[in-house]
Amino acid sequence: MARYLRNFNYLMFLAMVALIAIGTVAIWSAGNARAEAVFHGMWKQTLTTAVFGLAVYLALSAIDYRKVLDYASPFAYALALTMLVAVLVFGSKIYGGRRWLWFFQPSEVSKLCIIMFLASFARPLRQLGFAGFLLTGAIVGVPLLLILAEPDLGTALTLVPAVIAMMFAARIWRKGLLAVLAVIAAVATAVLCLVYEAEKPGVPPARRAAVLQWVPLKEHQVKRVKVFLFPEEDILGAGYNLRQAKISIGSGGFSGKGIGKGETNHLKYLPQAISMNDFIFCVYAEETGFVGSLALLALFGMLVVPGAWVAFTSNDERGECLAIGVSMLVFAHVYINIAMSIGLLPITGLPLPFISSGRTFLVTVMAALGMVQSVSIHREEAK
Q1: 145 CB-contact burial (10 Å; exposed 0-12 / middle 13-18 / buried 19+)
Q2: Confidence (pTM)
Q3: In this structure, which long-range contacts are made by residues 334-341, counting pairs with CB atoms below 8 Å and at least 24 apart in sequence?
Q4: Cβ–Cβ contacts within 10 Å for residue 94, how many?
Q5: Among candidates 361, 287, 238, which has minimal Cα distance to 29?
Q6: Cβ(231)–Cβ(242) under 8 Å?
Q7: Of the candidates 304, 299, 310, 361, the residue with the CA atom closest to the CA atom of residue 327
């Protein structure tokens, strides 16, 4: 118990609790703006889920993470693959995708399972060199393809940087990894240029079709990239959500309009279907303004930076990879969610940790941070 209290990362824990409190209030405000009564009490569901998540967090922080990786990570990875296949076969189809098994979202849990599995085998993968690089690609690629098949592009976008950070930390064929990143950057740039050429004003339909045949994106994804490149082109159609998100955030001003007083949200200009999850930052920013938004970012910094510090000071390679993977996963969620809300990235469905509604995601993130806390607590034993 003395070691537990001595090595417990209180800053990371307090930041997490503060974010849960802020998220509960934001969900209460977003829920009250909806006509359906079931959403008015969604904050209670979030709070109950957070209590359960806290129990998971404390339990995992008390257990030596090395035991969890040794005995649970292969089972967790196999379970993740099973769940991802099951959701494609038996999952509920909502908003055009199969992402749910009843109230459960397998893709969210799968991210932690993949991180655990990679952390367990960091050293063997490094020792295999190029073969280890290919094996890592296969380990991540199979569940990633299943996630994309749902389709759930947002989850895939957060998993990739977490895996890349872990590969750098584990020193898995770094030169080759840099080359692959360069290729990914070149392909992404080429896709943006092609969509720009196809969707710019005045392009004939025939030329548009000829250019888009080289773009490996679906029609709705092309529309999202178009909105990103030309945000003022279709403000009443494909660009409506982004425009309302920007108006909502900007109208908060310096200090905000007050909790529960966001006009864009309550007058239903901000799309109600996503105001409690993907666009929850817009609701929060309008009500708390620049000051509240800055405080929120500071709390996320107090969560991610200590997590990275735990990785840096870890005495065990597996603990280092685990902590850096979880920290990068949380950072990717925060960055992509807020960046898409203000137009710095194309819009994609992605929750904001602790702020958006979602039971599976909340418990998964708390479990992941509990394992990072375990790395901090049991670092002395791992010397």
Answers
A1: exposed
A2: 0.91
A3: 334/300, 334/304, 336/154, 336/157, 336/158, 337/278, 337/281, 338/281, 338/297, 341/245, 341/249, 341/279, 341/281, 341/282
A4: 9
A5: 287
A6: yes
A7: 304
Average pLDDT over residues 51-61: 95
Residues in Cβ contact with 345 at an 8 Å cutoff, skipping those fewer than 6 apart = 228, 336, 339
* Range list of β-strands (E), the chain: 92-94, 97-100
Query: Quick one: pLDDT at residue 375?
Result: 93
Sequence-separated (6 or more) residues with CB below 8 Å from residue 316: 66, 375, 379, 382
CA 84, chain centre distance (Å):
17
Least Cα distance to 61 among 319, 359, 279 occurs for 319
Q: Say how far apart CA 365 and CA 80 lie, in whole Å.
A: 16
| Residue 160 burial by Cβ neighbours in a 10 Å radius (0-12, 13-18, 19+) | middle
* % of the chain with per-residue pLDDT over 90: 39
Give the model confidence (pLDDT) of 181-239 as tens digits. Answer: 898 899 989 999 999 888 888 888 888 888 888 888 888 788 888 888 888 777 777 77
Under 8 Å between Cβ of 293 and 359: no
List, for residues 115-149, the tens digit of each pLDDT value: 999 999 988 888 888 888 889 989 999 999 988 88
Q: What average pLDDT does the segment 297-319 reach?
A: 92
Whole-angstrom distance, CA of residue 172 vs CA of residue 358: 34
| pLDDT reported for residue 239 | 76
- Indicate the domain borders of the chain: 2-377
Distance separating alpha carbons of residues 315 and 71, to the nearest angstrom: 20
